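note to self: dont lose this again. the chain is below, predicted strucutre after it. 226 aa total, dont forget to put it in the shared folder this time
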Amino acid sequence: MINGVIFDFNGTMIFDKDFHDTAWRKFLEKQINRHISNEEFHNHVYGRSASDILSYFLQKNITGQESILIEEEKERIYREICLKSDKFHLAEGLPEFLDDLQKRQIPVTIATASAQKNMLFFFEHLGLARWFSLDGVVYNDGTFAGKPAPDIFWKASDLIGVSIGECAIFEDAKSGIASAKNAGAGYIVGVSSMLDEKTLLSLGADTVIPNYQNINSIKEFNYDKE
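---
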């Protein structure tokens, strides 16, 4: 039974892959003063943590708070791109789904690799306070292991007071699905913003959605039949 819902954010609640790609490329090429090929970008950016990306391109070991501080310049570029795009909005059907979960008094939270400044930005520009409080979400503060380690989802389930085995987790990435599996999530929903349905299912998602418009077609969320 699903008694709590945990959302990854980027690529799951907003579809912002292109924004991040542009920001990472602009930031990294300025730092290393050379062009990054599509192959190198794919191999060393996609699915990698910020500390791994920075360590590879800057050629030194960068972790924890140092990673957050360096990455902030990239995130500043990312935020500028967001504000200039008409595609910067919550995924289709998500506000209605969140309203429904709230109406049903099902606890929800966000567990994201984004840092605090980005979460403040999202709260300001996407109206997240309608469903969440900043102190009630998990974001990257450098104090716990990143995905695919399970820590982020354990922290999230503790915040909403629901056993991880009774939580549904929405994820879009390989490392995120692995993290949800490692945490012992009761149900994993893949969001196909970046990976296709077949890939997400092969990674361990229980079901896959393109957006949240037809979420009630999944029996676990079909509240009309409760």
